[in-house]
């Protein structure tokens, strides 16, 4: 690397007494002065460059400004100084937190070994530039799904503890507390105070969000800030904060600015409130409204129960008014005559059946008597039968001296056959 002495013209060889870092050795070290002069000469060759950043310090001393510019993405910073002659040509409203583009030239002070940048020109970054950058980020985050309703977590109906991230002693904090406590006096808060604009806004808000998100008692987190211009609300469109909100496990409510303010946090948060007051109203239920609702529900329930009971009573009375239930004995009385008639008919039918059966029985008895051997015996006939029970129908069944029994109408007697008798009886 080529080193330069003060006053050296770029493109010319360095003076003979300049020093290169690699040329210094343990035995032949260079001096601090020569090293600083070499560094100064090298830095002077850069010329002016345009840089973009955020003003983080702006101290006016003796008509000049000494401050710092910070990178918009990383924590890198540079020291700047603006002489009074240059300051008179710059916008009068430059301040800490402004997003600017500046023409700077590096200047190294060899006596102290300090590096700073002199400002030749500075202007605010145009609103159009900022909006274009935010719009590109909006498109990117939407494509990643960070705006999708499907990933948004529901806000609890009655949170036990509300985490609040806001500026210390700010109107936003007072609005949230006052309106929430008016709606639900027992509401509790865990409040984290942060810078709501400037370089500390994003890191402090992210740290507070992680702290409240890790608290198991916190049911919902509200990020609240009063209204402001686009410049002051840029921190709530910072990609780092947006991704931290998207990855939080606790529902997050965005309550930034007024009705018309719309940082990207509104799209990533689980719920967008137009103002801090609106956030309190949407996160905490109104105790008066809830009591009124409970009263209405009780009234409706009592009316429904009364209607149901009255309906059932009317139905019961209707059933009881029916004749069969009002005078159940009437059914018996009405049917008693029918029962008597049926019973009488049954008796007559049975009597006729019995008479018919008796007459038939008598006839059968008479026929049976007429055909019965007993009737024949009554007329003087007798029946002879052998000892084995066989009836004697032929004289040849009883040869001489055969024992047999003779049955007559009123008894029986034993007999024995004789030959002559048999012979005479055999004649037809």
TrEMBL record:
Region (Disordered): 1-31
UniProt main location, coarse: cytoplasm
Role this protein plays: Bidirectionally degrades single-stranded DNA into large acid-insoluble oligonucleotides, which are then degraded further into small acid-soluble oligonucleotides.
Catalyzed reactions per annotation: Exonucleolytic cleavage in either 5'- to 3'- or 3'- to 5'-direction to yield nucleoside 5'-phosphates
Subunit field text: Heterooligomer composed of large and small subunits.
InterPro entries: Exonuc_VII_L, Exonuc_VII_lsu_C, OB-fold_nuc-bd_dom
Family designation: Belongs to the XseA family.
Record keywords, A-Z: Cytoplasm, Exonuclease, Hydrolase, Nuclease
A molecular function GO annotation: exodeoxyribonuclease VII activity
Pfam families (alphabetical): Exonuc_VII_L, tRNA_anti_2
Residues of the Exonuclease VII large subunit C-terminal domain: 146-365
Compartment list: Cytoplasm
Protein name: Exodeoxyribonuclease 7 large subunit
OB-fold nucleic acid binding domain boundaries: 31-123
Transmembrane parts of this sequence: none
This enzyme's EC code(s): 3.1.11.6
């Amino acid at each position: 690397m080529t080193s330069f002495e003060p006053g050296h013209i770029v493109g010319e060889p360095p003076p003979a007494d300049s020093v290169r870092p690699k040329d210094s050795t343990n035995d032949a070290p260079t001096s601090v002065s020569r090293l600083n002069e070499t560094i100064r000469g090298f830095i002077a060759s850069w010329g002016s460059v345009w840089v973009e950043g955020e003003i983080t310090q702006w101290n006016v001393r003796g008509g000049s400004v000494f401050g710092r510019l910070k990178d918009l993405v990383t924590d890198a910073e540079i020291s700047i100084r603006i002489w009074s002659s240059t300051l008179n040509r710059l916008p009068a409203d430059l301040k800490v937190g402004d997003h600017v583009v500046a023409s700077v030239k590096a200047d190294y002070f060899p006596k102290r070994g300090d590096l700073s940048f002199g400002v030749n020109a500075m202007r605010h970054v145009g609103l159009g530039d900022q909006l274009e950058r935010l719009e590109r980020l909006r498109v990117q985050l939407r494509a990643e799904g960070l705006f999708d309703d499907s990933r948004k977590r529901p806000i609890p109906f009655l949170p036990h503890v509300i985490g609040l991230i806001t500026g210390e002693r700010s109107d936003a904090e007072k609005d949230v507390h006052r309106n929430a406590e008016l709606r639900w006096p027992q509401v509790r808060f865990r409040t984290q105070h942060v810078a709501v604009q400037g370089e500390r806004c994003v890191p402090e808000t992210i740290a507070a969000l992680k702290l409240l998100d890790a608290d198991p008692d916190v049911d919902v987190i509200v990020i609240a800030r009063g209204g402001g211009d686009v410049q002051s609300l840029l921190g709530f469109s910072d990609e780092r904060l947006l991704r931290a909100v998207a990855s939080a496990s606790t529902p997050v409510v965005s309550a930034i600015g007024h009705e018309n303010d719309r940082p990207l946090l509104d799209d990533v948060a689980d719920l967008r409130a137009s103002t801090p007051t609106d956030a309190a109203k949407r996160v905490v239920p109104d105790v008066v409204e809830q009591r009124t609702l409970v009263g209405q529900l009780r009234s409706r329930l009592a009316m429904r129960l009364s209607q149901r009971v009255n309906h059932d009573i009317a139905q019961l009375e209707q059933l009881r008014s029916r004749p069969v239930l009002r005078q159940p004995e009437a059914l018996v009385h009405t049917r008693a005559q029918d029962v008597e008639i049926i019973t009488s008919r049954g008796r007559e039918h049975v009597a006729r059946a019995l008479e018919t059966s008796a007459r038939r029985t008598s006839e059968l008895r008479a026929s049976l008597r007429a055909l019965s051997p007993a009737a024949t015996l009554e007329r003087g006939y007798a029946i002879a039968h052998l000892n084995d029970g066989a009836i004697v129908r032929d004289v040849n069944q009883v040869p001489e001296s055969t024992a047999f029994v003779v049955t007559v109408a009123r008894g029986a007697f034993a007999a024995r056959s004789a030959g002559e008798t048999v012979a005479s009886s055999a004649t037809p």
